[in-house]
Specification:
Order of helices and strands: EHEHEHEEHEEEEEEHHEHHHHHHE
Largest sheet: 11 strands, mixed
Helix content: 40-55%
Number of strands: 13
Radius of gyration: 20 Å
Strand content: 15-25%
Structural class: alpha/beta
Length: about 325
């Protein structure tokens, strides 16, 4: 049996597309043994009412602490399938991907994902752009990281205890790093797996919200501390967080040699903004992100959360 596990919060604009795409996937591939599970993080819109209109969809709602890790763990606990397919309530699964990821025995590999196409919208939900999330993905490749969209064998999921509920963000990357340490990398197929409808990643409201709600502390501080002895994190860390490394080094030199070394970090952040052609107004965001992450390494120690939820349908 295949368990489709969908998580969402206030996804009224897209959750119908998500469930329809799963139904189409099932019909197109003539899947007879399946279940669809939706875990809602106390939506304040009509997301649940939309999902209720679909037949054969189990609906659970979180009653306690909420984050994506908690939602996915609830889905896994309630699922009966031998294979879990995870996606978010703003994603459409592509029906043609099934024949790429499955053979007559099941998944061709125990931990699989694929290409993702982003459809970007502004805050008024008007389409503004689109792109491939992995533009350099020209062939099937193995990675020690994933996103919130993947297929995984049940036994492998529970082998590492699912996702860590202390992570408010980047719980998917943490999962992949723990699996990689055990010897199972993610197989990312080059073919399109998901279409993702979302607000632009660089939308000002979005990035500032992530900065000040503490989400980015999980992406760097907790992640680094948890995986400091995991060799699979080093390449990613050097690629995405090199300005934080500069901050660490310049702070040490600034304290013990000369305070002028403290100027190195903002200069490097400024150069980064120019090199990757990001809006210059995001300089403060990237600068503060590193500062918060630096402090979080020593001051931020979140605890695991309990799964508290109820069956809606």
């Amino acid at each position: 049996m295949i368990s489709f596990i969908v998580i969402g919060m206030n996804e009224a604009k897209t959750i119908g597309l998500t469930i329809k795409s799963i139904k189409s996937y099932i019909s197109y591939n003539e899947i007879s043994e399946y279940e669809i599970i939706y875990i809602d993080s106390r939506s304040t819109d009509n997301s649940i009412e939309i999902v209720k209109k679909f037949k054969n969809v189990k609906i659970f709602q979180i009653r306690g602490d909420m984050n994506a890790a908690i939602a996915r763990n609830i889905g896994a606990v309630e699922a009966k399938g031998e294979i879990f397919i995870f996606l978010d309530g703003d994603m459409e699964i592509q029906k043609e991907f099934h024949k790429i990821a499955f053979n007559e025995k099941g998944l061709i590999y125990p931990f699989i994902s694929g290409q993702l196409k982003n459809i970007f919208y502004n805050d008024k939900w008007s389409k503004i752009d689109e792109n491939l999330h992995f533009p350099k993905l020209k062939k099937d490749s193995f990675y020690p990281e994933t996103g919130g969209f993947f297929m995984i064998e049940r036994n492998l999921w529970f082998l590492v205890g699912g996702m860590k509920t202390k992570y408010r963000r980047s719980q998917d990357i943490d999962l992949a790093l723990r699996l990689a340490k055990r010897g199972t990398l993610l197989l990312r197929k080059k073919e399109l797996f998901i279409i993702h409808h979302t607000i632009n990643y660089l939308d000002k409201r979005r990035v500032w919200k992530m900065l000040f709600n503490g989400s980015l502390l999980f992406q760097t501080s907790v992640m680094i501390r948890d995986h400091i002895f995991n060799p699979h994190i080093y390449k990613k860390f050097l690629r995405t967080s090199y300005t934080l490394i500069v901050l660490l080094i310049s702070t040490i030199f600034g304290l013990f040699l000369s305070p002028y070394f403290l100027l190195i970090h903002p200069i490097v952040v400024g150069v980064k903004i120019l090199m990757i052609r990001k809006p210059i107004e995001l300089f403060i965001y990237y600068y503060l992100r590193d500062i918060f992450s630096f402090l979080g390494l020593f001051l931020f120690f979140p605890k695991e959360k309990k799964l508290i939820y109820t069956l809606i349908k």
